[in-house]
């Protein structure tokens, strides 16, 4: 095996079992230095478990974890240059904000003068200098969150782990913190491993995203790749909104596949690897990449409009395909978009944009 | 494979816990074992026998112990019953009586016997009966025990009542029950485990009390603990160990019952 | 044990608010008549003149307190000097109770931590195991302890048998025996409140500290201990206060030379040699001491909660 020293964290075939329940099935991941890396997946898929293995609170049943090329399995948590922002913050209630933030530096044996200075700097970074003397209980949720962040950043760890740090905040504060976190990551150059179950949050913040489900890694890539080229139905469905239609492949030729829907309508799209004649696969179509029209386009499906739903910036149109499948289309709520809205009951064509349809084998 | 780094685990704490339990149980276990000793001397072991148990019931001291045991049980039953009733009513007022000014004071008063050192309570009670010219005897012991048992009955009862949501009796009253009926038909049955538990604890406390009893008992009146104390003053004899073991057995059985009852939760 | 059942949640039910006077009456009557009034009368008695055959003469006198603190010579006509006898007995009691408290803490804290970190369903069983002995008659327990610790008792025989010692240890009738007896009497009182505190403690704080480079025992000292301090204080008080006024352990295990307050007080009410006003005064002083400790700790706990 080659040990790439540039990777901050290298997880090799990590397996985690609790008794006979397997929480992680052989996960392999490399997280680059200076990267904002996100673990994304539904609740219970093993994100926290993986993070706790990196931090040192859970042992690795099989496999290994490397930090800058060094195996860290033998190191207890307090000897790993890795810090965590805990989901519930875990601020020490009997210490002031400044004491909390300075705790790590103090434990590393820095002189108290330096501890105070650097803790103060960390607090400044999260704009909480004026609250240094307060107790955590005297802060709002958002402020506590920032103290937790400052506390984990103050010792300048090589890797910072964040376990759903924003989940307890309200929407507006969460959005603001997403941007702030991103800036702090860029300014400090520390590798962030960020855990969330919120796909939108993951897409906004991350350099790269690992999508997980049931203890397995589903796809690894940047936000665009994951959104536009989902590798399987789980990723397509979990990231953003999509229409998944079961189709049968009739013909594969020149990188294009011709298929038909259960209702008999046919469609041609880019063939992905592993698609062969006769295969029963899924077709994924993002709702915003389909246009409702009175006339057919290059690739079209016939449908009947059921309902138009106004959702602020967009209008969602639900249509029934000839085979009875439900299909959703999203049209921007602009003058141009509104011109394309049809009354319920109208027969319409769903025109695909170039490259909008993706065939997924599993 | 390194073991999980678990911060709930402290090396050595398990050993200390086992040591702690050993300290707690060693004397009791040893006295129990020696109560079955056939030898008339407490130092030698002469094989297993029940002779000292027989001695307790038929031996030269048996009349004294039977008399003391009768007193002890009568006092314990009455004191525990009265204390439990008083504690149940007080808990209802304190936990279901809304906010009122004397609430904290009432709670403090109920737990007062736990805060005042027992010897002080004993002295005060003795002086009190002396000052009002009340002759010392079984009745003075009983009265003192009632007061002293109230907090022991109160604690499990109130713990239980705190676990019962007020919506139960409100629902009963919504269905046309009067307050009294809601108490009798809904609150009381739900509280039964707490009440039984409180009664049993009060019973043990009364049965076991030595210091207060020793002060307020009249001349010639004995309960089991005072009789045992008197006998122990002349040296530990094997029949004392047999009595102790029986008393110990009663306490353990009662506490176990109380524990099992209080763990049953009718609301689940 | 006197935990804050009174300071319930904000949603205070008032179903029986109308009847609360009647519900509380029996408790108030019983406790006012049988506890509060007697303590009041005891206070009065401590200022009366002693009757030589037990009891009091209804005549005001400072005598009892004077005798406690001052020595005026055999005939009471010398200038007062501080009388150390009784102060020393109090001091010895405080010392004995203090040592017993520390012993209980040393054993009780690890035990409480251990129990609180078991699987939730196992915890009640452990707690139950620790509490059973408390419910066994204190007299019987103290006698058992004496039996165990005797010069030719099972402990010495066992130690001699395995060759740890060559001479029996003399424990009974020493200060150590009293300390062990007190420790044994009230150990569950130390374990229970600490257990309750550790059980409520959020162990992710410990993980946060370890994550910030604190080794395991530093986590214990810097994070866990401060967080469970209220439980520790409560446990110490619950052991210290009853130890201070205890009678059985010093009487049965300590022998005549290891007198404590309890024995001093008891003696004043035995037979004809007693001095009731003096016993009442000693009881008042003990009660005052205890109340000061309780008030002090209540203030401490209050400050903790205010944070
Ligand atoms: N200590 C444990 N013992 C047994 N199962 C556990 C333990 N911790 C987590 N699990 C299980 O492992 C799976 C993954 O949990 P977790 O990593 O917390 O998920 P996530 O953080 O993605 O929501 C869950 O099914 C959970 O029930
Ligand atoms: Mg999680």
Question: What does this 3D model show about the protein?
Answer:
The complex is a heterotrimer of chains A (362), B (268) and C (307). With 362 residues, chain A is α+β, with helices and mostly antiparallel strands. Chain A folds into 2 domains: 7-233, Rossmann fold, CATH 3.40.50.300; 241-360, Nucleic acid-binding proteins (OB fold (Dihydrolipoamide Acetyltransferase, E2P), Beta Barrel). Chain A has helices at residues 47-55, 97-107, 112-125, 141-153, 171-188, 199-205, 223-228, 233-238, 335-338, and strands at 7-18, 21-32, 36-40, 62-67, 70-71, 82-85, 159-163, 191-196, 208-213, 216-221, 243-253, 256-260, 266-270, 280-285, 290-293, 300-311, 314-321, 326-332, 347-352, 357-360. A 6-stranded mixed sheet of chain A has the order 6-7-8-3-9-10, with helices on both faces. In chain A, helix 2 (97-107) packs across helix 3 (112-125), helix 2 runs parallel beside helix 4 and helix 3 packs across helix 4 (141-153). The radius of gyration of chain A is 25 Å and the shape is elongated. Chain B folds into 2 domains: 7-50, no CATH class; 59-264, Orthogonal Bundle (MetI-like fold). Helices cover 74% and strands 0% of the residues of chain B. Chain B has 11 helices and no strands. Chain B has helices at residues 13-35, 51-58, 62-96, 103-115, 118-131, 138-162, 167-174, 179-208, 211-216, 224-233, 238-263. The two termini of chain B are 42 Å apart. In chain C, the strands form 2 sheets. A two-stranded antiparallel sheet of chain C has the order 1-2. Chain C has helices spanning 20-45, 63-69, 84-116, 123-135, 138-149, 154-161, 175-200, 204-211, 216-227, 229-244, 248-254, 261-268, 276-306; strands at residues 48-50, 56-60, 70-71, 81-82. The model of chain C is unreliable at 1-11 (pLDDT under 50). Chain C contains 13 helices and 4 strands. In chain C, a hairpin with a 5-residue loop joins strand 1 (48-50) and strand 2. Helices cover 67% and strands 4% of the residues of chain C. Chains B and C meet through helix 1, helix 3, helix 4, helix 5 and helix 6 of B and helix 1, helix 3, helix 4, helix 5 and helix 7 of C. The complex binds adenosine-5'-diphosphate and magnesium ion. Magnesium ion is lined by residues 47-48 of chain A.
């Amino acid at each position: 095996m080659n040990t790439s020293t540039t990777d901050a964290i290298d997880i090799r075939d990590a397996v985690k079992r609790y008794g006979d329940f397997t929480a992680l099935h052989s996960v392999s991941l490399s997280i680059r230095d200076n990267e904002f890396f996100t673990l994304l997946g539904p609740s219970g898929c093993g994100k926290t478990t993986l993070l706790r293995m990196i931090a040192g609170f859970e042992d690795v049943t099989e496999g290994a974890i490397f930090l800058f090329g060094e195996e860290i399995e033998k190191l207890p948590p307090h000897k790993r240059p890795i810090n965590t922002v805990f989901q519930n913050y875990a601020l020490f209630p009997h210490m002031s904000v400044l004491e909390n933030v300075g705790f790590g530096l103090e434990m590393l044996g820095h002189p108290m003068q330096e501890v105070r200075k650097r803790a103060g700097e960390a607090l400044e970074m999260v704009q909480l200098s004026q609250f240094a003397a307060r107790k955590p209980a005297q802060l709002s949720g958002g402020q506590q969150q920032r103290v937790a962040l400052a506390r984990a950043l103050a010792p300048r760890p090589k890797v910072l782990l964040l376990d759903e740090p924003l989940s307890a905040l309200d929407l507006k504060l969460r959005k603001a913190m997403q941007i702030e976190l991103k800036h702090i990551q860029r300014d400090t150059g520390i590798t962030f491993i960020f855990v969330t179950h919120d796909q939108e949050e993951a897409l906004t913040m991350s350099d790269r995203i690992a999508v997980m489900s049931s203890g397995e890694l589903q796809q690894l890539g940047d936000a665009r790749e994951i959104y536009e080229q989902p590798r399987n139905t789980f990723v397509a469905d979990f990231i953003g909104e999509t229409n998944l239609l079961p189709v049968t492949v009739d013909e594969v030729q020149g990188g294009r596949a011709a298929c038909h829907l259960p209702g008999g309508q046919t469609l041609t799209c880019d063939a992905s690897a592993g698609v062969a004649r006769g295969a029963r696969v899924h077709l994924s179509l993002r709702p915003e990449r389909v246009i409702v029209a009175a006339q057919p386009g290059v690739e079209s499906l016939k449908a009947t409009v059921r309902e138009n739903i106004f959702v602020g910036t967009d209008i969602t149109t639900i249509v029934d395909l000839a085979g009875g499948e439900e299909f959703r289309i999203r049209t921007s709520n602009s003058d141009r978009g509104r011109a394309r809205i049809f009354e319920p009951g109208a027969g319409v064509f769903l025109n695909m944009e170039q490259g909008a349809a993706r065939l997924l084998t599993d | 494979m390194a073991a999980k780094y678990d911060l709930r685990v402290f090396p050595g704490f398990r050993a200390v816990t086992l040591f702690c339990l050993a300290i707690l149980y060693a004397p009791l276990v040893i006295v129990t074992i020696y109560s079955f000793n056939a030898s008339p001397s407490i130092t030698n072991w002469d094989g297993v026998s029940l002779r000292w148990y027989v001695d307790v019931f038929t031996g030269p001291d048996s009349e004294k112990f039977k008399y003391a045991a009768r007193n002890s049980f009568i006092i314990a039953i009455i004191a525990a019953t009265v204390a439990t009733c008083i504690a149940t009513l007080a808990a209802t007022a304190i936990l279901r009586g809304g906010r009122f000014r004397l609430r904290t004071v009432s709670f403090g008063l109920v737990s007062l016997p736990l805060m005042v050192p027992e010897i002080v309570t004993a002295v005060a009670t003795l002086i009190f009966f002396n000052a009002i010219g009340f002759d010392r005897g079984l009745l003075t012991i009983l009265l003192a025990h009632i007061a002293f048992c109230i907090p022991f009955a109160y604690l499990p009862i109130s713990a239980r009542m705190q676990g019962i949501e007020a919506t139960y009796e409100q629902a009963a009253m919504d269905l046309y029950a009067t307050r009294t009926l809601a108490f009798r038909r809904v609150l009381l049955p739900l509280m039964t485990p707490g009440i039984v538990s409180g009664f049993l604890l009060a019973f043990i406390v009364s049965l076991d009390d030595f210091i207060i009893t020793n002060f307020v008992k009249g001349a010639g009146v004995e309960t089991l603990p005072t009789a045992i104390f008197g006998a122990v003053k002349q040296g530990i004899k094997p029949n004392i160990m047999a009595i102790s073991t029986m008393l110990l057995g009663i306490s353990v059985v009662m506490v176990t019952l109380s524990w099992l009852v209080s763990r049953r939760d009718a609301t689940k | 044990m006197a935990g804050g059942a009174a300071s319930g949640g904000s949603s205070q039910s008032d179903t029986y608010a109308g009847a609360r006077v009647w519900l509380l009456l029996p408790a108030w009557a019983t406790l006012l008549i049988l506890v509060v009034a007697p303590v009041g009368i005891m206070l009065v008695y401590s200022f009366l003149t002693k009757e030589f055959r037990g009891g009091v003469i209804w005549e005001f006198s400072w005598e009892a307190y004077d005798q406690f603190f001052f020595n005026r010579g055999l005939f009471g006509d010398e200038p007062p000097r501080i009388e150390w006898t009784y102060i020393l007995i109090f001091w010895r009691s405080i010392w004995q109770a203090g040592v017993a408290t520390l012993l209980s803490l040393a054993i009780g804290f690890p035990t409480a931590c251990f129990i609180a970190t078991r699987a939730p369903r196992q915890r009640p069983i452990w707690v139950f195991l620790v509490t059973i002995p408390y419910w066994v008659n204190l007299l019987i327990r103290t006698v058992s302890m004496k039996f165990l610790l005797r010069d030719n008792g099972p402990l010495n025989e066992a130690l001699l048998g395995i060759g740890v010692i060559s001479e029996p240890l003399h424990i009974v009738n020493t200060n150590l025996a009293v300390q062990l007896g007190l420790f044994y009497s009230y150990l569950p009182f130390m374990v229970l409140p600490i257990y309750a505190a550790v059980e409520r403690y959020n162990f992710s704080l410990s993980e946060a500290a370890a994550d910030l480079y604190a080794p395991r025992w530093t986590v214990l000292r810097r994070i866990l201990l401060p967080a469970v301090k209220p439980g520790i204080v409560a446990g110490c008080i619950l052991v210290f206060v009853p130890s201070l006024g205890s009678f059985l352990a010093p009487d049965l295990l300590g022998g005549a030379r290891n007198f404590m307050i309890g024995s001093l007080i008891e003696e004043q009410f035995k037979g004809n040699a007693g001095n009731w006003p003096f016993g009442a005064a000693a009881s008042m002083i003990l009660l005052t001491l205890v109340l000061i400790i309780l008030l002090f700790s209540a203030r401490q706990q209050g400050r903790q909660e205010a944070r």
